[in-house]
Specification:
The protein is an alpha/beta fold. It has 2 domains: 4-15 and 254-418, glycerate kinase, domain 1 (3-Layer(aba) Sandwich), CATH 3.40.1480; 31-251, Glycerate kinase, MOFRL-like N-terminal domain (Rossmann fold). The chain has helices spanning 4-18, 21-29, 32-38, 52-63, 97-109, 127-130, 140-152, 157-166, 174-179, 212-221, 228-234, 253-266, 282-299, 327-338, 370-376, 381-386, 390-396, and strands spanning 43-48, 68-74, 85-90, 118-123, 183-189, 245-251, 270-278, 307-313, 345-351, 363-367, 400-401, 412-418. The strands form 2 sheets. A 6-stranded parallel sheet has the order 3-2-1-4-5-6, sandwiched between helices. The chain has a 6-stranded mixed sheet with strand order 7-8-12-9-10-11, with helices on both faces.
Length: 420
């Protein structure tokens, strides 16, 4: 019998490498339309998100020292100096004072540009929290409070970004307006299902498809506590048309799932990609993945073992407790109940950026022994999930998946490996 955990880790590591940003940036900068602008005027690099440092470093390696600009990324996601660029680290998923500091520094670089200048805007997941300057009349405290409310109530990323855009001075197309008359050449690693440019990082350089009416409806849907003065700001429309932007999407969860599929096949597992748009409750998704694994073992449906069942997307968690964890950890912990006592199944779920929620784990990796380990320690998975404390439970079972920051961010992937 193959070592399923060892195979799982190889599939995960190699799939992540396949969607790292360096090759994406190299491809984008070789495009004819960028090459035509390269020697016209100045090139200002503005890089935001969890993969911001690696994208900016790739651009610097290609373009040389004749660039200026700034990078704003998550804490512990930068890896040293980049010539000509200022590096800032800030909070994620909730913005903090360093978010504002980094954003202001970046905006200084795009002042007083000409139509011959080019802003190379490198965007990756996490940009919504990492690139922010509240609109006039909105405070950092306001942004934190509303973001926390949205995260706690299980709002999806499109809903969260709709609110953020309407309270922001840089999102929803407003950054591109600030860069004008310079041209914005935007290279995007997508962490939004469907790859909507106005949702990725809340669309700083994309015409905004969301409306003020939608923002107000989200407030009503989740019964958010919002001050009257902020309701007036939410009622103001964002830019619906931009004429100084070229956009290129270079990575997504689809590419991640395809990479995992190809590597699994290479290792002798028949791959089956169930979906790249998974959006349901994390613990329900974990239970469903476990049920498919059981079906494979008992009936050979929907594919015969040895096989790899793959699902990509971004699940949600409704907070009912005060524990520590993330959506991928809840997925894995829930799945462990469904495969308890079974041999020949390993299930993993992870965030492609290497961090799941406010923890140092990428997710979890479980097998048929995980639940019994926890039971012997007096731990009930049901109670753990009620308290949203998957991190500590998985740690107890030696089932946390630790990758460290990967340098990319293209949603999440879950994989079930099933042997004969």
């Amino acid at each position: 019998m193959p070592d399923l955990k060892l195979d799982m880790r190889e599939i995960i590591d190699r799939a992540i490498k396949a969607v790292l940003p360096e090759s994406a940036v190299k491809e984008a900068l070789s495009r004819k339309d960028f090459q035509e602008r390269r020697n016209k005027g100045r090139i200002i690099v503005a890089s935001i998100g969890k993969a911001a440092w690696r994208m900016a470093k790739a651009a610097s390696d290609i373009l040389g020292s004749n660039i200026t600009g700034a990078v704003v990324t998550k804490y512990e996601h930068s890896m040293g100096d980049i010539q000509g660029l200022e590096i800032y680290e800030a909070g994620h998923p909730v913005l903090d004072e360093n978010t504002i500091k980094g954003t202001k520094a970046l905006l200084e670089h795009v002042k007083n540009l000409t139509q011959d200048d080019t802003v190379l805007f490198l965007v990756s997941g996490g940009g919504s929290a990492l690139f922010e300057l509240p609109a006039e009349g909105v405070t950092l405290s306001d942004m934190k409070d509303i973001t926390n409310q949205l995260l706690a109530c299980g709002a999806d990323i499109v809903e969260i970004n709709t609110i953020r855009k309407h309270l922001s001075g840089v999102k929803g197309g407003r950054f591109a307006k600030l860069c004008a008359p310079a041209h914005v050449f935007m290279v995007v690693l997508s962490d939004v299902l469907g790859d909507r440019l106005d949702s990725i990082a809340s669309g700083p350089a994309a015409p905004d498809m969301s409306t003020s009416e939608e923002a107000l409806n989200i407030v009503k849907k989740y019964d958010l506590k919002v001050k009257p003065e902020l309701m007036k700001i939410l009622a103001q429309e964002t830019p619906k048309e931009l004429n100084n932007v070229t956009a290129m999407i270079t990575g997504s969860v689809t590419a991640l799932c395809e990479a995992a599929s190809n590597i699994a096949r290479e290792k002798g597992y028949t791959p089956l990609v169930l979906t790249t748009t998974m959006t349901c409750e994390a613990r329900e998704a974990g239970s469903f993945m476990a049920s498919i694994a059981r079906e494979v073992l008992t009936s050979g449906r929907p594919v015969k073992a040895p096989c790899a069942i793959i699902a990509g997307g971004e699940t949600v968690v409704h907070l009912t407790g005060k524990g520590m964890g993330g959506r991928n950890q809840e997925f894995a912990l829930s799945a462990s109940s469904g495969i308890s006592g079974l041999e020949g199944i390993v299930i993993a779920s992870l965030g492609s950026d290497g961090t799941d929620g406010p923890t140092d784990a990428a997710g979890g990796i479980v097998d048929g022994h995980t639940e019994s380990i926890l039971k012997n320690a007096g731990i009930s998975i049901s109670n753990v999930l009620k308290n949203n404390d998957a991190y500590n439970a998985l740690k107890k079972a030696d089932a946390l998946l630790m990758t460290g920051p990967t340098g990319t961010n293209v949603n999440d992937v879950a994989i079930a490996l099933i042997s004969c």
